[in-house]
Design a protein that fits this description.
The protein has 197 residues and is an alpha+beta fold. Helix content is 50%, strand content 21%. The strands form 2 sheets. The chain has a 5-stranded antiparallel beta sheet, with helices on one face. Strands 1-2 form a two-stranded antiparallel sheet. Strand 4 and strand 5 form a beta hairpin.
């Protein structure tokens, strides 16, 4: 065994690697990095799914939908069910489209004659709100996707850094910016839609 400058025995042998640097520890390190990398890739894929969902919930529904109002005729609530189902008549804002509605779910009881803003995607398919609220809902999905992508950047930069070098500063800043920016944007979208609907 070697001794250090103070005369104490040094347990690290030349070429042995010392504590946590032997072949078994190196395998654990590589295995851990591969696991972190795979987790990062899963977050990337999940964020891409959310980007597609945001398009479906926002721009696609706006492109295919017709904005208007539903005039409530009656509402009912089943025993043990949280949602209120109402029926009535949908009429587009330009007056060209008119549908009868059944089982339109709302978050509260409405009296006969009350009007609810909605976007119709054909008879029987309605989303409560306006084109604006649909766009905001799409943006909310994209904000969640940004947060998930931020987590992926942090994980992947950690997995692919070489040796014991610290994570690159740009990757750290980018990942945290996407994560917290996405979460903040998601919260703002929820707040905006709670006011608009």
């Amino acid at each position: 065994m070697k001794t250090d400058a103070s005369g104490r025995q040094n347990l690290r042998k030349a070429g042995a690697g010392g504590l946590g640097v032997g072949p078994a520890a190196a395998k654990r390190s590589v295995g851990g990095r591969i696991g972190v990398g795979l987790l990062g890739i899963l977050f990337v894929l999940f964020s891409l799914v959310l980007v597609g969902s945001g398009y479906e919930e926002g721009p696609r529904k706006v492109a295919r939908g017709t904005a208007g109002t539903i005039t409530i005729e009656q509402c009912r609530k089943d025993v043990g069910d949280e949602d209120v189902e109402c029926s009535g008549t949908f009429r587009s804002d330009d007056g060209r489209v008119r549908y009868g509605t059944e089982d339109f779910e709302l978050d509260g009881h409405y009296d006969k004659g009350e009007k609810v803003q909605a976007v119709a995607d054909g008879p029987g398919w309605y989303d409560r709100g306006t084109f604006t609220t649909l766009y905001v809902e799409g943006v909310r999905f994209w904000c969640i996707a940004a947060a998930m992508f931020g987590i992926a950047v942090l994980l992947l930069s950690s997995a692919f850094r070489s040796g014991g070098r610290p994570r690159r500063r740009w990757a750290h800043i980018t990942g945290l910016s996407l994560l917290f920016g996405g979460l903040l944007g998601c919260g703002l979208c929820v707040l905006v839609n709670s006011v608009l609907i």
